[in-house]
Specification:
- The structure holds two protein chains of two kinds.
- Chain A is α+β, with helices and mostly antiparallel strands.
- Chain A has a single domain (6-146, 232-347), classed as Bira Bifunctional Protein, Domain 2 (BirA Bifunctional Protein, domain 2).
- Helices cover 40% and strands 19% of the residues of chain A.
- Chain A has twelve helices and eleven strands.
- Chain A has helices at residues 6-24, 69-77, 116-134, 140-143, 151-159, 163-170, 180-199, 212-224, 278-296, 305-312, 323-331, 344-347, and strands spanning 28-29, 35-36, 49-53, 59-64, 83-90, 103-112, 147-150, 234-240, 255-263, 266-273, 316-322.
- In chain A, the strands form two sheets. An eight-stranded mixed beta sheet of chain A has the order 1-5-6-11-10-9-8-7, sandwiched between helices. Chain A has a three-stranded antiparallel beta sheet with strand order 2-4-3, with no helix packed on it.
- In chain A, a hairpin with a 5-residue loop joins strand 3 and strand 4 (59-64).
- Chain A is globular.
- The two termini of chain A are 20 Å apart.
- In chain B, 0% of the residues lie in helices and 54% in strands.
- Chain B is an all-beta fold.
- Chain B has strands at 2-5, 14-17, 20-30, 38-45, 51-57, 61-64, 68-77, 81-86, 92-96, 112-118, 121-126, 130-138, 151-156, 161-165, 173-177, 183-187.
- Chain B is built from no helices and 16 strands.
- Chain B folds into three domains: 2-64, SH3 type barrels, CATH 2.30.30; 68-126, Nucleic acid-binding proteins (OB fold (Dihydrolipoamide Acetyltransferase, E2P)), CATH 2.40.50; 130-187, Beta Barrel (OB fold (Dihydrolipoamide Acetyltransferase, E2P)).
- Chain B has a six-stranded antiparallel beta sheet with strand order 1-6-2-3-4-5, with no helix packed on it.
- Classes of the chains: A alpha+beta, B mainly beta.
- The interface between A and B is medium-sized, with 28 and 19 residues.
């Protein structure tokens, strides 16, 4: 492949502009380790594992981070101000295709005293910043004002039913997350979602085994995501709290304080109003760790991360942006190939 | 017939969905940030050509069908069925014309085609992208009609009606796109 100057120039210009933006806003840039002995358990993410060989001959596992979250939150809990990081992240088991790589560059930031919705304002400014630094004449569908759409509005418009009504019917909103009663409510939601899929003749997995979380994603991906409007960047807000994340719940509702940003139909960013309550953090950790342990037939090590976070983490909102995807979309590309400095098939043969 | 994980399905895989045979035309992986991995498939129904979009979790079991690629000679059509002969076994079989209507315009008696067959059923007749056909009916060009780009209709030896440039005459050979049925060029043998 002949040497291409543009991807270098655009990427460097974008990083510089993002750093300038956060510097002006008083954020500190972090440079946290790529290796960790204790990643945050996320049962849907497969990690790259390596072995550390100690001088005494013992071996201990280390993992490449799937995001810098595990470190940045520890820094916040220890009193750091608002933070950001631009760094490589690693996800094993992913297909390498148009918009997926197993190694990619993520911008992650945490704004103190921000909510997910106020953080969307920062996302808009970053989008404008990146566009100005690379391709200022980019069209509205990439560089325009972010349209906000709640998950409920999206379901009503594109799936033709009220997701909120289904979630309310199960009683989920009124029950404390992770309690036994909550799990019974999740079973009720699963039944409702299965009926929704069946009546549309859509694959619903095995009745009684499929989780409410997976059934929600089946409905969302089959009926909603593909139909989202493409004429402007779109933030899909207020995701169901039953999707297990570290986003805090919106009290008295079945929703979590979370949005995802889509540009030209491609998922570019994810944001939470961060969970800081110890019980919820611990319940998240235990649930995900036990899922991983049962899938891998091993124990998941626990260093008391939830308690350390809960002890000092301030109210904040964190967002993560896939910078490779964002840059490719601004360039008008239909995949990530134009940014590869080495053809991906040459360095990652099947 | 066997089970295949949705995550292992590739473009070109033959599947049975809702008791109908399909071929996978497009496959896209979708990994929601906080959820299981999914694949979005665009399938073509091999009986009626209808397109079906379906999203499966990567771990879902799907039914893969084993199809045979059979070289077969086109013998004739009787108005309701095409009659073929398997080139290796010499077995003769019929294919309902209704399920492959357009094929009649691109197959000449005695020619050999690759057929995709499953359970005695012909799912696909692989036609070439272009076909050369002799014009059997053509009006004479009106004298003096020299307008650039002027066209007329002709009929080919397979009864295909094609819009062609005014200079094409009866008995000449033309190349036609099988996908669109449109004239491409005159062939001078």
């Amino acid at each position: 492949m002949p040497f291409q100057r543009e991807p270098f120039r655009e990427r460097a210009a974008m990083y510089r502009a993002v750093r300038d933006y956060f510097d002006r806003c008083g954020y500190m840039e972090a440079d946290t380790p790529f290796l960790t002995p204790t990643p945050i358990p996320e049962s849907h993410i497969e990690l790259f594992q390596t072995d550390r060989h100690l001088p005494d001959g013992t071996v201990s596992p280390l993992y490449l981070v799937p995001s810098p979250e595990v470190w940045l939150k520890l820094l916040l809990a220890s009193g750091a101000p608002s933070l950001y990081q631009i760094g490589k992240c690693f996800r094993n088991g992913e297909q390498i295709d148009h918009w997926h790589r197993i190694e990619f560059t993520m911008l992650e930031w945490y704004g103190l005293n921000e909510s997910a919705m106020s953080n969307l304002g920062i996302m808009q400014e970053i989008l404008i910043t990146c566009v100005q630094a690379t391709k200022p004449d980019v069209a509205e569908n990439v560089g325009g004002t972010i349209r906000k759409l709640t998950m409920e509005e999206a379901f009503r418009e594109f799936a033709g039913f009220s997701l909120e009504a289904d979630l309310q019917e199960s009683g989920l909103a009124d029950i404390r997350r992770h309690s036994p009663e909550y799990h019974r409510a999740l079973d009720r939601v699963a039944n409702i979602f299965t009926a929704r899929l069946n009546e549309r003749n859509l694959p619903a997995g095995y009745n009684g085994i499929e989780t409410a979380d997976d059934l929600f994603h089946r409905l969302f991906l089959s009926l909603v995501e593909d139909a989202l409007p493409l004429n402007r960047p779109l933030a899909l807000t207020h995701w169901p709290a039953l999707v297990q994340t570290l986003a805090r719940s919106v009290p008295g509702t079945p929703w979590a304080e979370r949005w995802e940003l889509y540009i030209r139909g491609v998922e570019v960013a994810n944001c939470y109003g961060e969970e800081t309550e110890e019980g919820a953090l611990r319940a998240y950790w235990d649930t995900e760790a036990s899922k991983i342990a049962s899938a891998t037939d091993s124990t998941y090590s626990d260093t008391g991360w939830p308690e350390r976070i809960a002890e000092g983490m301030p109210s904040c909102s964190g967002a993560a942006v896939g910078l490779d995807r964002l840059l490719a979309l601004i360039r008008g590309d239909s995949d990530l190939k134009g940014l590869d400095l080495f053809p991906i098939r040459d360095i990652m043969p099947r | 017939m066997g089970m295949i994980k949705a995550g292992a399905i590739a473009k070109g895989t033959y599947l049975l969905e809702k008791n109908e045979p399909f071929v996978v035309n497009e496959r896209e992986f979708v990994n929601p940030g906080k959820g299981s991995a999914f694949v979005r498939l665009k399938l073509k129904n091999l009986r009626n050509g209808a397109v079906l979009k379906v999203t499966h979790k990567s771990q879902d079991n799907c039914e893969e069908i084993d199809v045979d690629e059979v070289e077969s000679q086109f013998l004739y059509s009787d108005g309701t069925s095409y009659h073929f002969m398997d080139s290796s076994t010499f077995d003769q079989f019929e294919v309902p014309m209704a399920s492959h209507k357009d094929a009649q315009y691109y197959m000449l008696e005695g020619e050999t085609f690759k057929l995709t067959r499953w359970n005695e059923e012909t799912l696909d007749i692989r036609l070439p992208p272009k076909k050369d056909l002799i014009v059997t009916e053509a009006e004479e060009a009106v004298k003096g009609d020299t307008v650039t780009g002027a066209t007329k209709y002709v009929v080919t030896e397979t009864n295909l009606k094609v819009k062609v440039p005014i200079f094409i005459k009866q008995g000449e050979k033309i190349r036609v796109s099988v996908e669109t049925g449109e004239y491409q060029e005159r062939i001078n043998d």
